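Q: Here's a chain of 254 amino acids. Please give me its 3D structure as tokens.
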Amino acid sequence: MPFTVVQLTDPHIGAQWSTRAASTLGAVVAAVGELLGRAPDAVIVTGDVASTPTDGEYAEARAILDGLGAPLYPVPGNHDDGAGLLRHFATPSGTTSYAAGLGPVRLVALDTTRPDDAGGRLDPARLEWLEATLAEDASTPTLLAMHHPPLVTGIPTMDAIGIADGERRALADILARHPQVQVIACGHVHRAIVGRLDAATVLVLPSTDMQLALDFTPGELRFVPDPPCFAIHILLDGRIVSHIQPVPDAPGNA
């Protein structure tokens, strides 16, 4: 079995628009164990762990995610409260942006949230931190985890709460200097999307709960009970290869 990092995203525990968030997260956790036959080497959760958010929601999410039996590495989403997240999920530095050596893979978690706003932000301070953090290890294959994808998705309502074009270009400039970043693992959009930023693959993972209906016209977001998903990032011959796995028998699937 290759070195394995599992990614989950957007559980939205406590979401008023969902009646299945906890049960589908539990189904995803069970499906990971069944597929791998062992605990993954690490687990990243790319945001929107809680929805309201409350300590009770974080405690419930933590209790379910502990079933994976693996170290948990969260990054906040626009629905999260950073302080609340850190009360229930420890990070190596005690902050919401951090780096973690996972052995043959390095994880860099980047907080892209904006206070009181659903959109993403990569301001100069965060980009400077990222540049310095990546410079600390230029040789280990690196997985960059962030909630907001650094892509234009073509879904107007989601792009309006994404990362601004200038900030995406600034991130691309950093990645051009740090080719060890092979995959950027994201959430936020509740759909499977694959793109590129400089040489890095951008993987946008569907939620462990409801998914976003695909609609390229402006308007209200519409969520549908499509199957929850998880991703498995594996290291093969020095390259990170990413798989998206749906869980078709989860409760409430369409």
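Q: Can you summarize the key feature?
A: The domain at 4-246 is CATH 3.60.21.10 (Purple Acid Phosphatase; chain A, domain 2).
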